Structure prediction request, 351 residues.
Amino acid sequence: MKTQHVRVVGAGLIGTSIALGLASRGVSVELHDEDQNALDLAKDLLAPHVKVGVPDLVIVATPPKTILNVLKKESGSNPQATFIDVGSVKNNLVLDVEALTELATRFVGSHPMAGREVAGPSSAQADLFQGRAWILTPTSVTEESSIDVAKELVEALGATAYIMNAPAHDSLLARISHLPQITSTALAGAIEQLGDDLNLSGQGLRDMTRIANSDGELWSEILLENQNEVLKAISEYQQIIANLKDALESRDESALKNLFINGNKGRARVSGKHGSKPRNYSHLMIVIKDEPGALSQLFEQCAAINANIEDLSIEHSPGQLTGLITLAFSPDDALRVQDHLLSHDWKVHLR
Prediction:
């Protein structure tokens, strides 16, 4: 990287992950956080790469409500640096920054499309952004040199940069990020009273409620910051649920089927790897024994014929002697893996 020294303000999951990723590439990093415990842990994770100096780039990775004030403070102390934030709502922030003449030309709004359900530096990973999309939302006067610095950062961390305006970002994220979070959280809340009966649930429920473990304080800020677009997204979703309810009440089988057809089409458009174009995968369902080493043996068989596993899911019930793992491959690889596994006495089914 041309950037030699980076200051990261905010030692949470994203800020610490960025610092770890940069440190692994030989970039010196400086950290700051009001939470001393989080800062101490992040510094310990980064030692000996933590250094103090004049930053080329300042990354603000604080909660949404504090980003603007942090930018104002940091821009006064670092008048030559490029600034980016990593918040998940952009329009209001970009408008506010555009009113700050000296900062606006050096600021690039950004949003890495990566994260984990558990916040804080203890969950940070140097490879968190590998293969992910990273959206950039410059101001109307951002200098090209600052955009280049932001692109260099994204590339160094293994992500792919996408540039769009801030309103388009907030509209899109309300539907592909904020609505899924709301839906998962609401569903998890609706089943909370079921107690031990939840032990009977399948993979579908686990998939749907995975992100319901997210930080409520952070997400409340995000939803309120993007209030208008989130309300629009909820209204659109409510209409689909209302159509489903009407179809059930009227026993309209054709309407129900159409809802599922539309769902199939929507799912097909997001079925690729994160941040990449959808791909046409073939899926193999493979029965495995519930014993140590079973998964590694399966993966070794795939590796033996150089077949790349694109995705996987596992179904297993407590007390069951076997489990079912579904592996996604390119169509050609799927046929090769199926033939190879069958020849080695694995139980394989093409879905």
